[in-house]
Amino acid sequence: MREQTDALVIGAGVVGLTTAVRLAEHGLAVRVRAERPPERTTSAVAGALVGGPLIADETEAAAKFSPVEVTVPWHRASLAEFSALAGKPGTGVRLAGGRLVNRRAEGSQEWAARLPGYRPCDSGESAGFPVAFWTSLPIVDMPAYLAYLAARCVAAGATMETGRVASLEDAAAEAPLVVNCAGVGARTLADDPSVFAVRGQHVVLENPGLEDFFFEQNPGPASTSFFPHGRRLVLGGTAERDTWGLEPDQGRAEEILRRCTAVEPRLAEARVLGVEVGLRASRPQTRLEAEQLGAARVIHNYGHGGIAVGLSWGCAREVLRLAVEGTAAETALAEPVS
């Protein structure tokens, strides 16, 4: 007979695992179920950088993902968590210096000066980009970080299982609280046609000795970035909307190598370790809201696009608030009126 489950979290990517950690460490009996283990999710192939425009700019950039008044606090809460984790053994998180660049010079860049460690690049550092500056932000070695989150889930009493959730109705029959962190799978699971895949491809090289990251902020199908994680260097990237295939594209891989080598010539001789592909779960706006499904409360937490890592802790905190708020409301309704 299965032990009591207070919450069933669907999905074992960075959003699902972070949510499960928050709920389990709050004292809930949590189960995490996903079709793929953490190391095979899209999160495992992310760069990943935490911070940037969304923690400094409270207007246009943040509004692309959800209303500004909620997105910016989510992002800043996540930055605080990752900054606290940076340097702790086994987390895969470290604070790194690096360059943020933009090929478009129009528009205000006042937000950039509010980033930690801000310094404009000189002409020899800009790699030809009209906007280029140094900053210091957390970068995350995602395979190591996901393993850390999974271990933290188990340490808090959560159980992890591989399996498919056929429907939210089935999930609601298993636990009084269901958290939908299914990523692109939410298109079917939540019957949400606004969810679409943005295919991302990275090339992984043997690191020739780089310590600093490089990240191009421009939206579009191609951008230039590299993130050093010890002996690995993750090069990006692509963003192909409504492209669902997971097979590596050799032509795209060669383009990524050319762009990154133009910025850092040392990459030309580095050994290629692999090519990784993932499907970012995108949506016009992130969906984070609760609904009642029979006797169960369902909280949706998906549609984070390419910034799932950077929103993960803030969104998990909001899920916990909604879960506790729902429990308190149910308790109040159950209490007799004197």
Automatic annotation (TrEMBL):
It is an enzyme of class 1 (oxidoreductase). InterPro entries: DAO, FAD-dep_OxRdtase. Its EC number is 1.4.3.3. Its cofactor is FAD. Keywords: FAD, Flavoprotein, Oxidoreductase. The keyword Oxidoreductase applies. Belongs to the DAMOX/DASOX family. This is D-amino-acid oxidase.
